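Exercise 7b. Backbone tokens:
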């Protein structure tokens, strides 16, 4: 990486760890192990420096698990140390844990690296894109939910100028569910800069009342073009949603998406989808749906990043009552803290206009949908590379027709793979 061995303050005087550093640089592993045993636990030695040298010693001997553990323990206390993040990324790269390596390399780029080192990191990222064979991510957790049926909290509704009392089935209903998610990709090399990538994902929520069980599956395959600083792909795909364990809708469509490293601190990303939906039980909802998103991530420091995004949605349902158009904005802030804590806050606000008159109410409908999600992860509570995450989400749909308005609160207690 063309950087000095130690990421900590250097001193002109001989330090207790200098003999250890010299053994590591010279590749004298046995002597280095003996020296490490002598300096470990000394009161006049920074324990984080000893951890870093432990990681470098393990890395040199290809003891990758040991190296990853040492570097992560340092970042758990000082997440802003760029050199440590670089070495962690390099070790994960050697282990072929490419998603985690990519995460740390991108974070390290925001740390004001010298130009030659930035070029080297970009080479690593390009190799990750080129050699990516398959990825698999998943999570499972409990999901307390205040409104599993997205029902209104109103007891009465006015239809045609007359008041009606809503049944309990039409009003909000709470429950505690189980959420399971999995997604993966498999890539086949077609040429030096081309891949054929297959992808699939599934999200399942189960509740004690199975009428509200919800599952979405998607799968597709298509070509992908790789570049030095990004990638772009297009693929036909199929999706299906089951609600209450019955088919709610099916769709086939086309998806295009890409990501580009705009600079050391900015990463642009975008996606476009068009789908043809069929609803077996509600044929008036059949029609085409267009969705698009564009966003930019700003990596302010190796431990802090921001997200700003805009999205567009258009539903061309057969019945104008269901036909709608929406635009939304997303803002996000994510931070790694000392004591191995990571937090994030995401806010999205979307405005939706429905085209047709809402028959029961004789009015046109306009909604403002707001989502606020906060999460906290304890990075050092790791079991088999999975860490716990607590997410709290608040949803509010403010509708011009009160019947369609609702609020919803979800608490997801989950475990996810550590990066």
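Sequence design result:
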């Amino acid at each position: 990486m063309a950087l000095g061995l130690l990421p900590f303050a250097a001193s002109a005087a001989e330090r207790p760890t200098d003999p250890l550093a010299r053994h590591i640089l010279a590749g004298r592993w046995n002597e280095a192990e003996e020296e490490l045993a002598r300096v470990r636990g000394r009161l006049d030695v920074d324990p984080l420096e000893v951890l870093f040298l432990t990681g470098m010693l393990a890395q040199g001997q290809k003891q990758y698990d040991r190296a990853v553990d040492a570097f992560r323990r340092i970042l758990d206390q000082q997440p802003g140390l760029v050199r440590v993040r670089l070495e962690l990324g390099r070790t994960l790269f050697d282990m072929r844990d490419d998603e985690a390596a990519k995460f740390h390399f991108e974070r390290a780029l925001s740390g004001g690296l010298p130009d030659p080192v930035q070029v080297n990191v970009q080479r690593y990222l390009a190799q990750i894109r080129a050699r990516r064979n398959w990825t698999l991510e998943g999570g499972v957790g409990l999901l307390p939910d205040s409104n599993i049926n997205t029902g209104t909290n109103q007891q009465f509704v006015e239809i045609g100028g007359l008041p009606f009392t809503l049944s309990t089935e039409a009003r909000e209903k709470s429950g505690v569910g189980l959420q399971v998610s999995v997604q993966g990709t498999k890539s086949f090399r077609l040429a030096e800069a081309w891949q054929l990538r297959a992808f699939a994902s599934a999200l399942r929520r189960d509740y004690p009342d199975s009428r509200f069980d919800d599952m979405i599956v998607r799968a597709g395959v298509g070509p992908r073009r790789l570049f030095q600083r990004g990638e772009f792909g297009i693929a036909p795909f199929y999706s299906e949603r089951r609600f209450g364990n019955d088919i709610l809708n099916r769709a086939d469509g086309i998806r295009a998406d890409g990501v580009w490293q705009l600079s050391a601190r900015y990463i642009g990303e975008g996606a476009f989808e068009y789908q043809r939906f069929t609803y077996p039980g509600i044929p008036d909802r059949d029609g085409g749906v267009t969705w698009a998103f564009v966003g930019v991530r700003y990596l302010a420091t190796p431990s802090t990043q921001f997200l700003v995004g805009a999205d567009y949605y258009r539903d061309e349902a057969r019945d104008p009552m269901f036909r709608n158009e929406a635009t939304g904005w997303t803002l996000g802030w994510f931070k790694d803290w000392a004591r191995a804590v990571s937090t994030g806050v995401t806010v999205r606000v979307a405005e939706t206009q429905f085209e047709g008159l809402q028959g029961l109410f004789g009015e046109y409908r306009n909604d403002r949908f707001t989502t606020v999600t906060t999460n906290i992860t304890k990075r050092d509570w790791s079991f088999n590379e999975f860490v716990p995450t607590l997410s709290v989400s608040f949803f509010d749909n403010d509708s011009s027709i009160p019947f369609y308005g609702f609020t919803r609160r979800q608490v997801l207690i989950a475990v996810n793979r550590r990066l």
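Instructor comment: The mean pLDDT is 92. The CA atoms of residues 334 and 344 lie 4 Å apart.
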